Amino acid sequence: METRALFSERRSVTFINKTEVLSKQTLKDIINLAVLAPSAFNLQPWRIIAVTSEESKKKLFDLSNQQEKVLEAPVTLIIIGDKEGYSDNNPVWIEMLSSVGGNQEMVDGSKQAASYLYGSSEERKLKFAESNAGLLAMAIMFAAKDYGVDSHPMSGIDFDGIHKEFKLNKDETVVMTISMGYYDKSKELYPRRPRRLYNEITSIV
Ligand SMILES: Cc1cc2nc3c(=O)[nH]c(=O)nc-3n(C[C@H](O)[C@H](O)[C@H](O)COP(=O)(O)O)c2cc1C
User: pTM for the whole thing?
Assistant: First the structure.
């Protein structure tokens, strides 16, 4: 899809066709494209739970203020950020070592810097997890659109409840959820609301 069209045609689609299946392969393709999103030190401090079973959807629906799209969509993704994603046990450090031709000093320096930058307070840890995983979320929505799949992000959800129900570990944080599927064209989306433009939101210093 042409980039400008991607931006102008992506919408948060409230009405998702209940009967149109989203294939596992398409979901895989969307996620494998979206992971090209940038992340600090390429640490990719994120993971995704794809909620597809009726039982899990019902649980997530109740933890999402009963937003119908969670039941209607073939899949809702729980986007999870890792607040400790800079730590030693992230396998990306091993990949980095081979990517930098075995330069251990460089990897150790990066580890130290990442730990200092992102791990020195709870606030920084959360910022690290949420900023990176937030970019993944946006990338997923654009990648989906490119595959003709619509999406709807949600943060009107019970973050703690989802954390508990879907058994996240203590270092993980629920960033948002994204329902995905195909727009039910028999229903009309509300018109897109205007955006605040450059003059209103930008200052030059
Ligand atoms: C982080 C985030 C959380 C959102 N949470 C909800 C939500 O819980 N329920 C909902 O109906 N829409 C939610 N939205 C959708 C916004 O209302 C929507 O993106 C906005 O109105 C702009 O519309 P558009 O995406 O169609 O351009 C959320 C969007 C974002 C980015």
Answer: 0.97
